[in-house]
Each structure stands twice: as C-alpha cells, then as structure tokens.
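Hi there. Long-time user, first ticket. I'm pasting a complex I've been working with (about 346 residues overall). I'd like to know whether the download I got is complete or cut off, because the file seemed smaller than I expected. Thanks.
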Amino acid sequence: MANTAEGQQHPLGVYFKIWILLFILSGFSYAVDILQFEGLLRWSLVCIFMMLKAGLIVAVFMHMVWERLAIVYAILVPPLALIVLMLLMASEGSYTELTRILYFVGGSG
Amino acid sequence: MTEVNVTDDRPSGMQGVIADWASDQRAFKGVPWGKAMMWIFLLSDTFIFSSFLVSYMTVRMSTPEAWPNASEVFALHMFGANIPLILIAIMTFILITSSGTMALAVNFGYRKNRKMTTLMLVLTAILGASFVGMQAFEWTKLIHEGVRPWGNPFGAEQFGATFFMITGFHGAHVSIGVLFLLIVARKVWRGDYEDDTERRGYFTSHKGSYNIVEETGLYWHFVDLVWVFIFAFFYLW
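Hi, the file is complete. Here it is re-exported in full:
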C-alpha cells in the first residue's frame, strides 16, 4: 500500500479499550461529586482522574505513544511552564485574598 | 509506489532526539508537515486555555466572597428531584463518545474505507453539535436565573465572567470543529483523498493520503482534552 509509512495504524481493539476506560474514569469523577467527598480526598481524586483521562487521550487517541521522542518532547515539555505560572498565581491569589480580608472585609481601615 | 519507512534505521530514545534535531534535515521524522503544524497550533491553544483557567483560579482564590456552589448551580430538576451536574455529566459522556468515533474515523481512513470514514466523521460532527446545543441550553438557563458576567444571585461576582469566558471559548472550539469535520467528511465521501483523484483545493494537498483525517482528529481530541480540565476545575472544584 502506498503512503502508509506516515500513517498511524493500530488495531481497533486498542481504541475500544481506551474508550471504555475513559467512560469509567468519567463515571468515577462524577461519582466524586455525587458522593460529596470533601477536602483533600476530593481534590486528589478529581486530579488523579483528570490526569489519567488527559494522559489516555494524548497517548492513545492522539497517538503520542507511537511518535518519536523528538516531537513528543517538542509538544509536551513547553506546557510544564504552565505549572510554574499556576503556582505563582496561586501564591498571588491567596496573598490578594489575605489583604482583602485584612483591609476591606474586616473594615479596620 | 511504496514508501520506505523513514524512521526504521534511525536511533531511538534520547539519542534519537539529538539525531533528529541535528542540522540540515527534517526534525519530525514520520510526521507529515500538516500534523506537525496542527500539534504546534494545539500547543499554542494549550497556553490560551491554561491562561484562562489560571486567571479563573486567581480570581476565585482572591475573592473573600463565597463562590457559587457548582453542584447546585448546575443541577437540573428532573424526575421530581434536583440532580447535581447531570447535564454536565451527559455532555462529558457525549464528548468522550465523539472522541471514540473520531479515533475510529482516523483508523478507517488509513484503511481507505471511505464509507465508514465518512460515517464516523458525520457521527462525530452530530455528537459535537449536540454538545454545543446542550451548552446553549445551559447558558439560557443560567441567563434566565440572572447570571451575568458582572454578577449573579448565587455568590461571588467573578463567577459569571469566568464561566461565560471559559465555556464560551471552548464551545467556539467545538463549533469550529464540527464545521471542520463536515468539510473533511464531504471530501472523504467525494474521494478527494484517493490515489487517482485530480481534485485539488483546501485540505487536499496530497493525493492518496488520509493524513488530514488524523489532523482533524488531533484537533477534535484536543477539544475533548480541554473539556476534561474544565470539567475538573470548573464543575468539580
């Protein structure tokens, strides 16, 4: 067959398995809300299910596990900078809240 | 004509990264330029969506006002009871289903099964359109309840602004994806990607190649991927 060299061809079964896994994981994240888990347990479960789902989509549906490392690194390494942004803004956000509580809500003037 | 697989005789792993990025050659072996460009576009889109989500996190963390309870705000009154987040859950399952049909479309495309590829692409487009429809319903409901970008009856004012911005931007992506899917489905159906076609135009630069279906698929899976994060951070926080 012509031009198959650059196509991503894999057995259909792989997709069905990932599909079912994604359904189950989505069901789990919805269950976290239904069962009203709170606090650290809720956060860790939500984040774990989220990262698993995201990983499965990128790895299998978007074929990243079958690509060469040159493109995998080029695409997946830059977003790590976003984690730094998130941490910076989380620290900034709690500081802003603190000053608002001290100077506006408390009304100490 | 048979093409030699360009990646067969090259080193793998970290040595492969260095060898592939070395000068005077194509860096992304085995990746057509269209796919490389789609990935780079998606990388930039990742930064846009992340900026929105990070600003949402910042305003939510910095307000002393109570944030509206997503479980109650997004509940639907069905079968005589308020079911929390039910519409969002249905939307999530629809989007995952559409990702599955999209993956099948890519697979059938490379098998040169035109009929099944078209069918799967159209099915993906229908699922995507129904997602947008449900989002329109959700927006209508919230607007009727008095949610505005500058205020709402449930709590912190920033809720409306971030909600309409993030889900609106995502919904726009889904809508554009539906159009893109329908255009590609029509071209597959007409046989624009067959070896013997003489048709040329948008999205039909190479004959005998169904790579465009995979590139459309990358965009569609990305839309699903963004929804995974919106679902976790906006609806489950």
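A couple of notes from our side: The two ends of chain B are 55 Å apart (CA to CA). Residues 1-30 of chain B form one domain.
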